[in-house]
Amino acid sequence: MSSHREAPSISQDPVADNADTYAFVSPDDPSTVTIITNYVPLEGPPGGPNFFEFGDDVLYSIYIDNDGDALPEITYQFRFHTTYQNPNTFLYNTGPIGSLADPNWNKRQLYSVSVIHSNKNGKTQDHSQDGKGTVLGTNLACPPCNVGPRSTPNYTSLASAAVHQLSSGETVFAGQRSDPFFVDLGAIFDLGDIRPIQNLHLIPTTAAPSVDQLKSLNIHAIAIKIPIAKLTRDGSVPTDATAAKSVLGIWGGASRRKVQVRDGATTKESGPWVQVSRLGNPLFNEVIVPVGKKDLWNTYDPVQDAAFVQYVKQPELAKLLPVLYPGAFPNLKGLTADRADLEAILLTGIPSGIIPGFQNFTGKTPADMLRLNVAVPPAKTPNALGVVGGDLAGFPNGRRVFDDVTSIELKAVAGATYPLVAPTYTPDAAVAAVSSYITPSSSRYESTFPYVGTPYDGYDTPSS
Fold first, then answer.
1. What is the pLDDT of residues 339-354, one digit of tens each?
2. What are the structural domain ranges in the chain?
């Protein structure tokens, strides 16, 4: 999966687990960029009586690097707090919830948004900046979770009311959504089973279509739509895709206080904020970083990612595929050179001259960030395989909610992108089948902000 439960420690702390980060030029407003960071992975919709929510004790951050140094020039921060209308009931709601101010809704979450500029401190970013930025909005309401037809009879209107236009020009939303990520999760972690070619597996079974095993699960999303001119280094809206100023580095992160003391039902916190989760490119920590260093990776900042370059140059999965699929990947088996293609895709961006009309290069500093070229307009007919499928508006040019990043990265690791740096290399025929090729339900996506679909309720959840 992208980053759902990807490291030992964060798998025990779902409210701080940055499961996915998305960044794209807004299709209905190309003068803006939308960034989405998702938390609380694998939410089963029937979650009562204590339905899922953000952590009141977590500092959620979205980072933007606009000068290619792998440090954030702009940081948006989100803090949540929970209120009870009636602490003497066990119920989340005592009747139908008709509005965000309905007295029937007992347990609510509100949040604040602030922005910090030039949040830098030496060679790493300072995670203890909470409260030191410009406050853009306070007491902004999250929608309730989608309980069911009696408790939330018109959920669409509740979610719409939770889209907030800030006076500073940004639009924000924070709350439960359908998880847009799709992957054949059960198969891929069953010794790398890729169902369309599982007949070629070391332990073969009949080839079959892939299964979207996340299709009935929810997530908690923080979404923000920002005018491009607020993000670029010179305050412009670039139109030249070859210009360095057109490229933004984007990632998300979650931090907790360094000290936490529990005393019965009371928890006290103190000390600076310490990062416990981060995410730029999908699947980086999940698949690239070895298990013994996953927790460490979550504490590092992108500017420190030189420590993990070796795992990109020689990815373990590229060595496993020829073993798990004997005879299916002979060219990949013989590929022993460092993977300069993967370094470019994941750590530096793709320089000009490699792919006609495209670049998202941020410099030689290796850093795991989504790299979005804002001068590339939204595609009129998007391809879920992004740049690999000829759609320059898709991953790894940022990441849209419907991009099939599992297939794209599996194909890349299997050798599909190596000819970009070694034209004489021929990808194995099996690479074409190294893909989920899942077509997720259109209900998981929306054409307007926040672009992620209505969460499933616990009453009528579709079977997976």
1. 999 999 999 999 999 9
2. 10-185+214-307, 310-433
